[in-house]
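Thread: quick sanity check before group meeting

JM: Hey all, I'm pulling together slides for Thursday and realized we never actually wrote out the predicted structure for the chain we discussed last week. Dropping the sequence here so it's in one place. If anyone has concerns about the input, flag it before I start.
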Amino acid sequence: MITLQCKLELSGKDKDMLKDIMRKQSACFRYAYNRLLEGKTRKELKKELQSVFNINSRYVDDAIFKAQTLINTYIKRNKNPKKVIFGSRNLFRKLTKNHLQGKDREKLLSLWQEKRKYFLYSRGDKAKSGNLNTRIILGQDGTYLRINIGDRAWIKTKVIRDVERKNDKWISFISDLLTAEKTGNYFPYSVEIKIKDNQIYAFISYEEPVREVEITKQAGVIGIDVNARPFHLALSEVSTDGNLLSYQSISLHNLLGKTRNQRDYLTWQIAHKVVEIAKEKNKAIVIEKLSTIDKGKKGDGNKILRKKLQQWVYRGILEKVKVLAKRGGIEVIEVNPSYTSIIGMLKYAPIYNIDKDIAGAYVIGRRGLGFRGRLPENYEKLLRSQEYIQYAIAKLEEERQKSKERLKEEKNKHKQKPIKGQIKQLSKDINLLKNLNSEPLAQKPENRWKEQVRGEVKTSYKQWQVVKVALTFPILEKSFGRDFSPLKSYLVDWDRVVRRLVPTPGVGTMANQIPPVSAGLPEMAEYKYTNLKCSSLHFS
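JM (edit): ok, ran it. Output follows.
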């Protein structure tokens, strides 16, 4: 979808008539929004609102469509659509502050009313020469926008749009309109009219012709992972057989502290860079289906990360990558992002000795090629080792107790929140490990007695979640990290490593006496066999 902006020039009388129809449809939109939340249907509203607001059926239908789209957006982002504030929540909050007086308040109120009360939206229709209510007219003396103001009355506004470069999309848009007039083969374009600083602007949107795909996943892919900490893009080049060929990262820190327009410009540059890399490598692009992200709340104890997340333009970056890739004839594959980070950091980061974000991009690339993130054999052994699971539970319980003690000592209520969150997460992790084998799972076909078998995994995703809980803190001694190389020994020789870690049953409180991974592998099994008579036992 391409959106072009242009300025509209019209007389005072025409401007008043335009503002009147804008005010009516804006009110219709707000009314329809609330009625849709109450459960009314589009068909019911279309009959009712046409007479209430005295606008034609197409304007009513477009207002209902716009209202439904906004509701769907709120639901998709896991937000309550009933809490919407028309005209900008930020402006409304500023207006409620008592210290704002005089001209400053009047200016802010005028801006809020412009956003709330004045817009006109008309969807395109191929059968109606592109758009019935708001149509572009190409004349000898210039370009005009013909606007339906009701009662079979129209106003013509002059379109002002400066063309500053040869590849401006406005040139191709006008060219396509001229071709459509000659051939009669029109294309739909939507028009939305808004007022800003008492000036009237039109935003024209239309679908860009899709270029035939030339670069496909048959030559491999580039997986892309967007990350907030550190703020960057991770790119992994993956061959058709699923092997990692190369990787790199693109920093996004220059987006922080910028205005919205500046960030938009910079994200286009980043998207161009990503697509150029794909062209150079002759690889398709694989991205995540990112629907939403928790951007944090005030008072959650994570101010720095929250500030980054508020400016995290991940959706904009990926959408721009998709647009540019389609223009360049590059295939774009979208995959489910579930557990890509966990699989990457636990399976591929230790083996390839790469950053967990690069590993996550690698998993995304493999998933785009159809590969599944199967659990390594040694991690499967972990899930079946009751001794190790008990050891991991002991380590987590010990850390939870330490966190509770820190919570008692901390007097700052704001600093208490992240500690409480950590305690809550540790409790969830402990329960996950304790309930690992509490339910019988699917029967393995090789069991001829058809008995229920415990210890098998329900789904591959649950496997990875359990492995993450059992390994990250008990072994790495931290819930989140960037260096997962110590896990390589567990992937290569689980039996040898686990024997030195697992304490004797009944001495779980001694978990803190076990040396960290960095201490190396001892020759004597002194931690599993605490009895001195067993000191002569060695690993083989």
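AS: nice. Residues 20 and 149 are 9 Å apart (CA to CA). DSSP finds 17 helices and twelve strands in the chain.
JM: adding both to the slides.
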